[in-house]
Design brief:
Elements lengths: L10 H16 L3 H5 L7 E4 L2 E4 L1 H14 L10
Antiparallel strand pairs: 1-2
Length: about 80
Protein backbone atom coordinates (compact mmCIF):
# COMPACT_ATOMS: atom_id res chain seq x y z
CA UNK A 1 0.00 0.00 0.00
CA UNK A 2 1.44 3.36 -1.03
CA UNK A 3 0.64 6.47 0.97
CA UNK A 4 1.11 9.90 -0.53
CA UNK A 5 3.16 11.89 -0.87
CA UNK A 6 5.52 9.71 -2.87
CA UNK A 7 8.79 10.78 -4.50
CA UNK A 8 9.62 12.93 -6.22
CA UNK A 9 8.46 15.35 -3.54
CA UNK A 10 8.42 19.09 -3.61
CA UNK A 11 9.31 20.89 -0.39
CA UNK A 12 5.72 21.13 0.83
CA UNK A 13 4.92 17.44 0.30
CA UNK A 14 8.27 16.43 1.82
CA UNK A 15 7.47 18.47 4.94
CA UNK A 16 4.08 16.74 5.17
CA UNK A 17 5.71 13.32 4.92
CA UNK A 18 8.26 14.19 7.61
CA UNK A 19 5.51 15.51 9.90
CA UNK A 20 3.39 12.39 9.33
CA UNK A 21 6.35 10.17 10.29
CA UNK A 22 6.97 12.25 13.42
CA UNK A 23 3.31 12.14 14.41
CA UNK A 24 3.08 8.37 13.87
CA UNK A 25 6.21 7.72 15.96
CA UNK A 26 4.94 9.89 18.80
CA UNK A 27 1.71 7.91 19.06
CA UNK A 28 3.90 5.14 20.52
CA UNK A 29 1.74 2.67 18.60
CA UNK A 30 4.34 0.13 17.48
CA UNK A 31 2.04 -1.57 14.97
CA UNK A 32 1.12 1.77 13.37
CA UNK A 33 4.79 2.74 13.04
CA UNK A 34 5.74 -0.66 11.63
CA UNK A 35 2.98 -0.44 9.00
CA UNK A 36 5.00 2.33 7.35
CA UNK A 37 7.72 -0.26 6.70
CA UNK A 38 7.77 -3.03 4.16
CA UNK A 39 7.29 -6.55 5.51
CA UNK A 40 10.98 -7.30 4.91
CA UNK A 41 12.35 -4.02 6.30
CA UNK A 42 15.71 -4.12 8.04
CA UNK A 43 16.39 -1.84 11.01
CA UNK A 44 19.46 -1.25 13.14
CA UNK A 45 19.60 0.24 16.62
CA UNK A 46 23.16 0.54 17.83
CA UNK A 47 24.31 -3.10 17.98
CA UNK A 48 20.87 -4.68 17.42
CA UNK A 49 19.51 -5.65 14.02
CA UNK A 50 15.86 -6.34 13.19
CA UNK A 51 14.20 -7.72 10.10
CA UNK A 52 10.49 -7.66 9.37
CA UNK A 53 7.54 -5.88 10.91
CA UNK A 54 7.05 -8.26 13.83
CA UNK A 55 10.64 -7.77 15.02
CA UNK A 56 10.28 -4.01 14.57
CA UNK A 57 7.07 -4.01 16.64
CA UNK A 58 8.77 -6.02 19.41
CA UNK A 59 11.76 -3.66 19.41
CA UNK A 60 9.59 -0.54 19.57
CA UNK A 61 7.54 -1.93 22.45
CA UNK A 62 10.75 -2.66 24.41
CA UNK A 63 12.17 0.75 23.53
CA UNK A 64 9.10 2.67 24.63
CA UNK A 65 8.81 0.76 27.91
CA UNK A 66 12.14 2.33 28.92
CA UNK A 67 11.95 5.71 27.20
CA UNK A 68 8.80 7.06 28.79
CA UNK A 69 9.36 10.74 28.00
CA UNK A 70 11.04 10.33 24.62
CA UNK A 71 9.49 12.33 21.80
CA UNK A 72 10.73 12.35 18.22
CA UNK A 73 11.23 15.70 16.51
CA UNK A 74 12.14 15.54 12.83
CA UNK A 75 13.29 18.40 10.64
CA UNK A 76 13.63 18.71 6.92
Amino acid sequence: MTRPPVPPCDEESARKKVKAAEDAWNTRDAKKVAQACTEDSEWRNRDEFFEGREEIVAFLKRKWECELDYRLMKEL
